[in-house]
Amino acid sequence: MIKYVPEDTSIVFSEVPEEITMALNISNCPGSCVGCHSPYLQTDTGEKLTAEVLGCLIKKNSGITCVSFMGEGRDKESLLSLAQIVRKEYGLKTALYSGRLEVPDDYNAYFDYIKVGPYIAEKGPLNKTTTNQVLYRIIDGERLDITFKFWRSLDGKAKYELNDDLEHVKKIRNGLERNKEKYGEKYCPCRLDHTPDTICPCLEYRETGECHCKLYKK
Question: What are the backbone dihedrals phi and psi of residue 211, each rounded to the nearest 5 degrees, phi first?
């Protein structure tokens, strides 16, 4: 059983890019992030989130395209069951906002979007290029990092637009993940030098719009 806080339920447009999302704050968060904006969610507060309650919320908020579970609670089975109901019975996308560094791969079968990473004040939230948090889009069971979609220019448009060739994008993203695992940062796979200037998106791309990896469009 998981609980949510009814009065926090809201329709949001920025938590999941390009989706109209109903966000449900889930309590009993196992994390303890310093500077957490909702510390009360670490307690056993709120009401039971059952399949019936979830269905009523979805019907009440017609027009949404996604349901986001803002937290995991402490009952994985119930969480995944509810996510499956959202997708199969209502045809909506699902998102999970987790404060953990990683969540199991089997979550990929239940969610279309997964955010991982605890909040670290000095690194900032998802809309900061310095963030430690990552938002993944699940495509064919694989996680594609789309955090860049939170980074906006002054005119409100997305700063970085991915190459239309998703197979190429996956190849480059895999290279970035390998560099992250090996060197501690997502250095451009197309460069031999590993400096702050070659952390993706690299300095050259940010200044000139030229991406040698062809990960981003000019």
Answer: -115, 105
